């Protein structure tokens, strides 16, 4: 098709489809709200543009030529694409109303999928993403359709914060220790380096962890790692220790004694949250509570 002849392509194709369906130029013109001569001219322009005769003219009207039969599915595809393009505003409006679920980037995706999201929990239409806890607070503060899970403690300001859930953790370590790792054996089990999420993800939570380790007599250096691939490499290659939620799939961790270094998670939503967001937050809290510190 020559580019200079395709300016009114969509209109030409629309007319082609009506004529193909009706099988008569005059009746098709009535359907389109135009007179017959302009419609005939439009069909001729389309035929000229594609370089083929699309209709066979006969006494009773018109029928598709072999080229017209080949062109028909392409014309239908083009008009379907046009409808999808024009429906963008509807899709955007639907997207704006869907619930955005934000979880800490330090929480392994495998644990979220396998442990947090219980079978039967209906989060249909939700959009999932991960981010630092500090960014999640900012996102939820500005979006009534957003629900966040953050690592506590953290400043939540005017947001609605559901009760903190303490999730038991496993220690990934190369040290040989008895299960579970107790307060007495924790120092040897951790070793010289413990990998943590960057302090900027949640300064208060980072400082609480450091204080808890100190109170337990653990003198390990806290090494901040944000990238999951780097975290895996540091554990395997550098033989550093790390904390992960209990029973994270694919991670060979040693359970910690009850109450030792739990992961404290809290669900947040906007004070003027949309009903769908409030419902999603409540359901997420229920799922999170099932993963609480007492569940082994």
TrEMBL record:
Record domain HTH lysR-type: where: 8-65
Gene Ontology molecular function: any one: DNA binding
The keyword Transcription is assigned to this record: yes
Annotated source species: Kocuria varians (Micrococcus varians)
Pfam families from the UniProt entry: HTH_1 (PF00126)
Keywords from the UniProt entry: DNA-binding, Transcription, Transcription regulation
Family statement: Belongs to the LysR transcriptional regulatory family.
UniProt GO cellular component terms: protein-DNA complex
Record-given protein name: HTH-type transcriptional regulator CynR
